[in-house]
Inverse folding.
């Protein structure tokens, strides 16, 4: 036990809470940790709560009673999220991203941990009230986004593989249809990776008709697990409504047009900002 | 501009710094942000620096002069790192991890964002003094570790693919030999993913002889880039020294024995703790 002045306690408490999102911490933990009275800790937390709320960083939930404590729920305001989305759109519209076949090069953006963490915070905000047991994605490009979201929600990440790997043990495999060519692919999930009846948040970097995500939904059924939500960084708006396999999802950006000839790309904020 | 009391400023400053590791922030930024005199900000930072150092959370570097400012270098003490490694070893020794072929099931551990972030902090500490431009890994299981490390070092992550993807544009592919069967594999990196002469930190989840990592080293040569360091979460000690392709690396855990019959697994802290 170490005795700390309020000023030092505030720094300590702030970093402690930021490192433990969505985790209930009993006040006694802090009282013991800092050799301070619970009343002083409560005053500290009131100060922190006010700053977090003024900054739009999230909620500091306090629970009274013996089982009481404090829990930090990281959030990003719609305003901050929109600024993020508009910046993302501007970067996605850089003409040199267009690849043969009208594909868009995004790996540089997906390679920025800070950018992924911001997106993860937005998904954590969008799904903060949902009851979720884990975050799921299929390899490869959605992985950083899934981990960023899982970190903010304090949830494990379940990774679906394209092929069955020797390092995964027994696995359940399914076939799914995806891509403009409606080609058949396989995805596989280790039997021990997911508990029955889990409530799963599906996250991916890009969605067109939604075949890949529908594949994950079908895979969840094999585990008697259910979808708690779907979040995609970028959705393609160039899809006929009847083609779209999935309708209930959150997107942060929407790719509305890619013209290979004129090298024109149009991206607007996703459906998260429509409501 | 908002005027904040010292108590609120300390909370604000702490979260601001924690969210921007390895980033030089001019004092004027804070002075303007909080409508406070630089001298007051300096006093705040002194308090934060002391707490960070007492907690072994890292260094708060302050630079005087017009170009001066402050930079947070996240670190973990060897003692804290060893506690992490010992816990990791204990979990890896759970007998039900053994898979046919003597492989070890690790996906549950690799699926814990908080665990990956701790490991990332250790690598960020181990390579804090190195001059590094980006973190590199090859899909799939090393990705969360690479991002956790990149986030702590404020560096982008470069992702090597097993096959050439349409979404990557033109790419450089190489063949490499890996696994106990010395089988030939291919790995591929988008031309635009890595700048010439980059200094690269290679990160992966598991290393046996080091064939896969040697493949990444060979790939770097194709880009006239160089290796700044190599970090692996778990290394296999069951390798003859002459078999080992790689000798300069940091490991956090060492798998010394896996007995499929007796379901015995032996794991000890890695070479990071030998020095």
């Amino acid at each position: 036990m170490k005795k700390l002045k309020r000023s030092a306690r505030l720094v300590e408490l702030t970093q402690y809470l930021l490192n433990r999102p969505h985790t209930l911490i009993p006040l006694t933990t802090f009282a013991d940790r800092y050799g301070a009275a619970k009343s002083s800790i409560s005053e500290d937390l009131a100060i922190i709560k006010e700053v977090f709320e003024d900054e739009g960083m999230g909620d500091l939930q306090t629970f009274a009673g013996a089982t009481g404590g404090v829990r930090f729920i990281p959030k990003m305001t719609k305003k901050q999220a929109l600024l993020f989305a508009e910046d993302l759109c501007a970067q996605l519209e850089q003409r040199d991203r267009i690849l043969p076949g009208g594909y868009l090069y995004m790996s540089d953006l997906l390679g920025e941990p800070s950018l992924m963490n911001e997106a993860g915070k937005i998904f954590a905000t969008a799904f903060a009230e949902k009851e979720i047991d884990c975050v799921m994605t299929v390899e490869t490009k959605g992985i950083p986004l899934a981990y960023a979201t899982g970190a903010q929600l304090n949830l494990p990440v379940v990774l679906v593989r394209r092929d069955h790997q020797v390092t995964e043990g027994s696995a359940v495999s399914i076939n799914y249809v995806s891509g403009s060519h409606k080609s058949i692919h396989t995805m596989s999930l280790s039997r021990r990776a997911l508990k029955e009846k889990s409530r799963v948040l599906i996250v991916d970097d890009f969605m067109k008709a939604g075949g890949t995500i529908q594949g994950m939904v079908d895979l969840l059924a094999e585990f008697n697990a259910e979808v708690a939500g779907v979040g995609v960084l970028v959705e393609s708006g160039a899809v006929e409504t009847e083609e779209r396999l999935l309708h209930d999802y959150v997107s942060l950006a929407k790719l509305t047009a890619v013209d290979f000839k004129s090298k024109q790309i149009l991206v607007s904020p996703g459906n998260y900002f429509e409501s």
Remarks:
- The radius of gyration of chain A is 21 Å.
- The mean pLDDT of chain A is 94.
